[in-house]
Design a protein that fits this description.
The structure is a single chain. This protein is mostly beta strands. It has two helices and 15 strands. The protein has helices spanning 117-120, 134-137, and strands at 7-12, 18-24, 32-37, 51-56, 59-64, 67-73, 86-88, 98-101, 104-107, 140-144, 161-163, 166-168, 178-182, 187-190, 199-202. It has a six-stranded antiparallel sheet, with no helix packed on it. A three-stranded antiparallel sheet has the order 1-2-3, with no helix packed on it. Strand 5 and strand 6 (67-73) form a beta hairpin.
Length: 203
């Protein structure tokens, strides 16, 4: 059992085909102590969606394609950090994801949905920090555009370790610009905790 003090976003059919946000409380020995299921449950296979999580103090919000889906307050969680490190495609090498991920951002500042609007219109992923809009560089903790690899393009070198995931085409059809996960042991991980996470965005 992993005692989590961070958060997890997952999707599976047992959640009524909806997104679920988990917030950990290992400080009090509770593991995943809080969970909230989103209202959207009409996801279509082979269609891209963008997910945006904002954490402000004890408030957590998830937007799907710019529409608010989850809004939850978790008392005492304002300084939670996931000590097991980060994982894309699994929860601590458990509960595997079957699908494709692209353009993962993590910021130390709470962004608004509007600040991502220009990025969402791009047809070619910026593969370096200098190519990003200036507002998205502020407070950037990690940026994984998956341009042929899982290298972090921020200045913080949180480079991912690819375990089984394979390069795939992104939402605009650009080859080797996203990672595909088979739902059976694939993930991308970095073994150190990320502190002061306030916004997370991905496709």
């Amino acid at each position: 059992t992993i005692n989590h003090t961070g958060l997890s976003i997952n999707y599976n059919h047992s959640n009524n085909s909806a997104i679920r946000l988990y917030v950990g409380d290992a400080i009090n020995g509770n593991g995943w102590a809080y969970a909230q299921t989103g209202s959207k449950n009409d996801y279509n296979p082979n269609q891209w969606y963008h997910f945006f999580l904002v954490k402000q103090g004890i408030n957590y919000r998830i937007y799907i394609d710019g529409i608010l889906d989850i809004n939850i307050n978790v008392g005492g969680s304002d300084n939670y950090t996931e000590l097991t490190g980060y994982y894309f495609g699994s929860i601590g090498s458990m509960q595997w994801f079957n699908g494709v991920l692209d353009d993962v951002f993590i910021w130390t500042t709470a962004l608004s949905v509007g600040e991502l609007s220009d990025f969402n219109l791009l047809t070619q992923t910026p593969c370096s920090l200098s190519e990003l809009p200036a507002n998205l560089q502020n407070g950037l903790l990690g940026y994984w555009p998956f341009c042929g690899n899982a290298i972090d393009q921020s200045n913080n070198s949180f480079n991912g370790f690819v375990n089984g995931a394979s390069l795939s085409s992104d939402r605009n059809g650009n080859q080797n610009s996203a990672y595909s996960f088979d739902g059976d042991g694939d993930d991308i991980s970095y073994g150190s905790p990320l502190y002061s996470v306030s916004s997370t965005y991905l496709w």
